[in-house]
């Protein structure tokens, strides 16, 4: 099988702002001195691991393959509930997750290194998904910034805070491509596109792990959920996935590869079964692709209780069989289920697994522990002064505020309703207007809602000299309309109404799938009633997934997708509304008109009977009877308070060979009245291939800052990497033929130019 390249990266001319180029994922390859030094360090660690392994009993080795949660119940080899401290003391545990303070972590580490025979330190994990103490916007929101530098900064800060809390391993980044907003975990990823997702995955790993493991502020990253968890049928969590190998390799695998190339040394299996084989027992994924094709040297951990769940999948007869299947497939560490602890020794004795299989897994785990520096200083992550001093620092809060501002997508702004000027009479209405917890979103680690200001309080502070009124109107999910009259009353007294609507924090994330992705409860009915007052309405959305907003979009004069923006989210929302920050974010995922369009994404295939916009009533075309094909808001869409104009696209030449390049240039002008930032996007289309190709594929983007009245040339380079795809023979390469290059502000607003790839 041909080597799988990382997501095709565009090497382009950086005009201004943030550029994303091929160097982002290959810096280590360009520094032979660093590579030699690393190899020397790896050899030294390997020798230490071998020396330790020679002293270990089979029981001690199996113990290293066991991960328990601090808060969960533990079933030991006797079938009885066990005490976690006793399990550590007897060597039956190699790591703990969800131990939340330095004091707790230090206590367990002391047991491991003082009361066990070989004094092997524990590894401590946590779900540090979008912040630890200082909570940043949810990952889907951060992806809306298209700012990989800002995303890297957010994970760097999360790593600094988490390691100050004693944690040295995070179960992030989640790099699953997700094209079904019914799936609640879409909130945890970067959206629908493998190119953008790969850029973000690499940035997150760089942020978590810094310049390398071993520093007390660097956090071991874990790419999850391997693989294709985001494609669960019916958008239902933990469900099954069935897809072609072509789709798996072209769409769903690239972000994992990018994370591994960026240095991630742990990978978590997905809960799902993929094409009939559960990911937790899938050698095609864990051996052929991950280790043989990609050369992954880290360790693989199961998801929570997932090895035991092989029985429920109908793939294993019992827990013993499940443990064998998982180890055979390449799972090194068992999270929480106890399947390895209770069964591997017996399986070795029975000859169902080999001692070498155990040794290989344990070597990988111990190697990472050595890289983390735990053998040099088991308590290097246990500094209580550092834990206290790094909580909610001014610098961290400022970074969270900046990322929140950059993550908010302006979806609508009729007649320049926004930005507000201070001194207005504003009615703030909606079930989320005064909430603080819901601003943090799901997986908020150790975030503290008491440190969060509500949207209401921040609007009131920005509305200097004005009057800010508030009524809840309704709850998020309730059908109770008894609060409508009070809300209507204050709306009639106001100049503008800000409706803070959406989902509560616990309506997206794990086990939070929805069959309806409209606003829950009676929120839309409240909005309809407020519209009857004749006041201008700004809708602020707090949500963890794309919603169907056709009715709301028709009612609102302006609409801001704020997502779940984190600790500083209330301040960021208010400052965007009042123009202290000009929105620049773009959607990383398509917003459908209705749930019947799902799954919907920009890079669809054309079909043999494509819809013809020039003849929309034509029958026997790939259309719906009751809905347009196009989404409500397309991938890459986002407005600004200013306006950007694009000149005609220019190509440096009209044909190229596979070893040549073409430069694509467009002039972008700020023709509005505000300074602003624009995210310029490059797409291509292969017009004819040995297999059908998407109508559009993102291949590059640039974020540029332009003052009002200024213009700038923006250039991208198209070469072999941008035109490589998985051909009919399942080999990666290019094919001669006709192509189109597209540049514009979104996948739904592009201009094109034709070129040809010669043999």
Structure, explained:
With about 750 residues, the chain is an alpha/beta fold. The chain is built from 22 helices and 28 strands. The strands form seven sheets. Strands 1-23-22-27-28-20 form a six-stranded mixed β-sheet, with no helix packed on it. Strands 12-17-16-15-13-14 form a six-stranded mixed β-sheet, with helices on both faces. Mean pLDDT is about 95; it is low at about 1-35.
Count of strand segments = 28
CATH class assignment of the domain at 400-577: Alpha Beta
Low-pLDDT residue spans: 1-35
Q: What's the alpha carbon Rg, rounded to whole Å?
A: 26 Å
CATH superfamily of the domain at 400-577: Glycoside hydrolase family 3 C-terminal domain
User: How large is the count of helical segments?
Assistant: 22
- What fold name stands as the CATH topology of the domain at 400-577? Rossmann fold
Spatial sequence of strands, sheet with the most strands: 1-23-22-27-28-20
Task: Outline the biggest β-sheet.
Answer: 6 strands, mixed
* Mean pLDDT over the full residue set: 93
Please tell me the CATH architecture of the domain at 400-577 by its name.
Answer: 3-Layer(aba) Sandwich
Strand proportion, as a percent range, falls in 15-25%
* Shape, per Cα inertia axes: globular
The end-to-end span amounts to 23 Å
Query: What structural class results from the helix and strand content?
Result: alpha/beta
Q: What is the helical fraction, as a range of percent?
A: 25-40%
């Amino acid at each position: 099988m041909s080597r799988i390249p990382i997501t095709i990266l565009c090497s382009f001319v950086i005009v201004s702002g943030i550029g994303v180029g091929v160097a982002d994922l290959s810096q280590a390859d360009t520094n032979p001195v660093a590579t030699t030094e690393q190899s020397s360090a790896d050899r030294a660690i390997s020798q230490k691991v071998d020396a330790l392994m020679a002293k270990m009993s089979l029981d001690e080795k199996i113990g290293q393959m066991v991960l328990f949660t601090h808060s969960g119940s533990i079933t030991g080899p006797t079938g009885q509930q066990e005490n976690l401290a006793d399990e550590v003391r007897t060597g039956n545990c190699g790591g703990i997750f969800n131990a939340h303070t330095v004091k707790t972590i230090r206590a367990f580490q002391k047991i491991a290194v003082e009361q066990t025979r070989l004094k092997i330190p524990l590894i401590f994990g946590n779900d540090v998904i979008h912040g630890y103490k200082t909570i940043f916007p949810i990952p889907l929101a951060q992806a809306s910034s298209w700012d990989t530098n800002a995303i890297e900064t957010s994970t760097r800060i999360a790593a600094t805070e988490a390691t100050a809390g004693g944690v040295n391993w995070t179960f992030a980044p989640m790099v699953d491509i997700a094209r079904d907003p019914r799936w609640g975990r879409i909130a945890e990823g970067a959206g629908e596109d493998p190119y953008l997702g790969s850029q973000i995955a690499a940035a997150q790993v760089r942020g978590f792990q810094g310049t390398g493991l071993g520093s007390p502020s660097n956090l071991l990253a874990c790419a999850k959920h391997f693989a294709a968890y985001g494609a669960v049928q019916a958008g239902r969590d933990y469900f099954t996935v069935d897809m072609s190998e072509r789709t798996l390799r072209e769409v769903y695998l690239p972000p994992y590869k990018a994370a591994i190339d960026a240095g991630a040394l742990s990978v978590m299996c997905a809960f799902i079964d993929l094409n009939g084989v559960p990911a937790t027992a899938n050698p095609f994924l864990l051996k052929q692709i991950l280790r043989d094709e990609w050369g992954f040297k880290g360790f693989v951990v199961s998801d929570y209780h997932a090895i035991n769940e092989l029985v429920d999948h109908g793939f294993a007869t019992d827990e013993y069989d499940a443990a064998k299947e998982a180890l055979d497939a390449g799972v090194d560490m068992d999270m929480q289920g106890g399947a390895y602890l209770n069964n591997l020794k017996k399986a070795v004795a029975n000859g169902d697994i080999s001692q070498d299989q155990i040794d290989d897994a344990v070597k990988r785990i111990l190697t990472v522990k050595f890289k983390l520096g735990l053998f040099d200083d088991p308590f290097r992550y246990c500094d209580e002064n550092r834990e206290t001093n790094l909580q909610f620092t001014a610098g961290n809060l400022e970074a969270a505020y900046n990322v929140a501002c950059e993550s908010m997508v302006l979806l609508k702004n009729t007649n320049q309703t926004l930005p507000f000027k201070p001194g207005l009479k504003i009615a703030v209405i909606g079930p989320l207007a005064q909430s603080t917890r819901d601003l943090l979103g799901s997986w908020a680690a150790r975030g503290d809602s008491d440190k969060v200001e509500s949207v209401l309080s921040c609007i009131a502070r920005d509305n200097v000299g004005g009057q800010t009124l508030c009524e809840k109107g309704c709850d998020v999910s309730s059908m109770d309309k008894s609060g409508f009259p009070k809300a209507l009353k204050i709306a009639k007294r106001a100049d503008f109404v800000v409706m803070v609507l959406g989902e509560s924090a616990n309506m997206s994330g794990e086990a939070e799938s929805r069959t309806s992705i409209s606003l829950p409860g009676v929120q839309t009915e409240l909005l309809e009633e407020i519209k009857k007052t004749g006041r201008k309405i700004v809708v602020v959305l707090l949500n963890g997934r794309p919603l169907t907003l056709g009715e709301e979009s028709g009612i609102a004069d302006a609409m801001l997708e704020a997502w779940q923006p984190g600790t500083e989210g209330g301040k960021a929302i208010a400052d965007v509304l009042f123009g202290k920050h000009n929105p620049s974010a773009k959607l990383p995922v398509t917003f459908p008109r209705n749930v019947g369009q799902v799954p919907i994404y920009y890079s669809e295939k054309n079909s043999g009977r494509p819809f013809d916009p020039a003849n929309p009533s034509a029958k026997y075309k790939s259309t719906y009877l009751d809905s347009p094909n196009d989404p409500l808001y397309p991938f890459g869409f986002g407005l600004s308070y200013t306006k950007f104009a694009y000149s005609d696209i220019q190509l440096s030449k009209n044909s190229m060979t596979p070893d040549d390049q073409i430069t694509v240039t467009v002039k972008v002008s700020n023709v509005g009245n505000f300074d602003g930032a624009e995210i310029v996007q490059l797409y291509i289309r292969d017009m004819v291939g040995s297999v059908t190709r998407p109508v559009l594929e993102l291949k590059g983007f640039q974020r540029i800052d332009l003052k009002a009245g200024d213009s700038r040339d923006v250039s991208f380079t198209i070469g072999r990497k941008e035109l490589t795809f998985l051909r009919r023979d399942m080999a990666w390469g290019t094919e001669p033929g006709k192509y189109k290059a597209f540049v514009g502000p979104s996948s739904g607003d592009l201009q094109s130019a034709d070129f040809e790839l010669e043999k």
